[in-house]
What we know:
By secondary structure, the chain is an alpha/beta fold. It contains 18 helices and 17 strands. Strands 9-16-15-14-10-11-12-17 form an eight-stranded mixed beta sheet, with helices on both faces.
Amino acid sequence: MEQFYQVLTWVGVFFYWLMIAAVTMRVVFKRRVVGVSLAWLMIIYIIPVGGVMAYLLFGELNLGKKRAERSKDMFQPFADWFQRLNDCSGHQPHLMSEHARPINDLCENRLGIPALSGNTLSLQDSPQKILRSFIDDINQAKSSIDMEFYIWHPGGLADEVATALVLAARRGVNVKILLDAAGSSRFFRSHWPKLMRHAGIDITAALAVSPLRMFFRRLDLRQHRKIVVIDSTIGYTGSMNLVDPAFFKTDAGVGQWVDVMVRVTGPTVSVMNCIQAWDWEVETGDRYLPSQPECTLPSTNENIDMIQVIPSGPGMPDEIIHQVLLLSIYQAKESVVITTPYFVPSENLLHALKGAAERGVIVDIIIPDKNDSIMVEWASRSFFTELLTAGVNIHRFHGGLLHTKSVVIDRNHCLIGTVNLDMRSLWLNFEVTLAVDNPEFTQQLNWLQQEYIKDSSLVNKDEWEKRHITNKLIEQFFYMFSPLL
Length: 485
């Protein structure tokens, strides 16, 4: 009997070794970012069996068979829709600034989406202003309202938005709402979905989470876009979920969330609506391609705005937003100002920021002083010493959880949208960013960033070096896992 158990043990060891070897080969041959591969290998080797299971569940970009098949079938109709934008009179690439033209070329070649002029932009810089603007525009809606958010959290002004949507549906407006199943779980447990559906609103949970689904697709892929389109003429996007900060995560100890949204009118709204239609079809299988935008020829070369819509995530070209960020930073000649709640940069992004500072560009990074993610906060701190040594200014914001995601380059070109500077946003989630070539709007965003800086404390390099050795060890520990955060 003892000999039988010995044989059984050796057989178990052999099959365990075979499993480790097979998964290791799979990690190596995926040819992703080296840091990501090394982090996964460390987890696989340190955590017996559990590491292998974790990789099989979360290690690869698996959208699921049904969604993958839909995406494949959708590609050509949507590509044709985007191709027709080149015939729009608002497509004037020769009028772009020297900053915007390379980004447009990259996005046209990889995404097939051109930048368009003839838009108006309004920066809305407080949650109350944003939610009130939603309500006003919903109350004026005549034909359609399309919304998608990562989080919808009931309470306060968010309930007033929901009420306005119910009233709009009852007067005949076609309302469609796409919400991430995990991020909006509190909403789906509330009375609102039943009330909305009763009024005729079409609500869909994106990327539903359940134990059974973990064997068919990656569960931590999230629908992180925030887009609102009303009557195909008014669009919103930015960092804010559909929440009233006074009623959202009030016990997290980080203060109220601080966000911005951009209200857009003009041909870019149709592009945003098409991105939304893509997400809706991936989830439901129902197609509704919006009408092509009505474009007008710019009357003057002065104050020409160009907006490039940049969707990223599964189904979109790999690393597109990462490439745009790197391109923007490498083009900077005077200044780079970044706001992000979650700062865990890739190796290339870290080098770009350091390189900009070392060549004399003023680089300011504004992050929350307190974060709702402990792992991300410790991982963020692990990059401080390198950045401070290179001359990057790091500001820790004290006015709440700064959730605004923005990049301003040389005060005349900016990126604003839903993308955090972490690996999850750059490589995994469904995201959207606007690249705005409009000095007036960019200046408004820069003024807002400067207000954030006034409510922040500058990290002093000498003081930072004096932090306790325990903190350094914890930072280094989470640094090893930063490619996966």
